[in-house]
Amino acid sequence: MIFLMGLFTAEYGPVELEALLESIAKGDQEALAALYDHARGAVYGLALSYLKNGHDADDVAQDTFVRIWEKAPLYRPQGSPMAWILTIAKNLSLMRLREQGKTADLAPEDWESLAIPSPSVNVEERHALHAALTALDDIGRQVILLHAVSGLKHREIAELLEIPLATALSKYHRGLKKLRTLLEGGDAS
Hints:
- By secondary structure, the protein is an all-alpha fold.
- Helix content is about 70%, strand content about 0%.
- It is built from nine helices and no strands.
- The relative contact order is 0.15.
């Protein structure tokens, strides 16, 4: 099965992310750059899943890191630092949606931007993944992306999306099953 790779790297765990946030709170621009390099794909992916527009998602991703720079002194290690970062991105995305009063389907080039070019994934496979992901409902797609791309736990996803844990789990498992069926050439209707 194809997964969106390269958007979330395992080099930083919660302890390392908290250390970066602590350094950012002290004004360390290099720590912000490291956090940006690590988390930008996940932030962009979440924003894109809400906004369905690559330009708006880019703007929200940039605004998220500006907000992190401003709010890092307020961060308290009480859970997942990535969930804190993605909550900022979610809130900025929702604000943008309210301001614009719109939602639309993702353009193919926006879906392409989620997948980092990889020699093991060809264009046809990317198109198949795009088609499969668009077959999921918005919440199902967000749950899959947040878990597979951002590495969030289902509990964290449920809190971030403000849905019950059971819903997050069922959307994830049903979504994976549907993706698997579609990517193997079946009909997931």
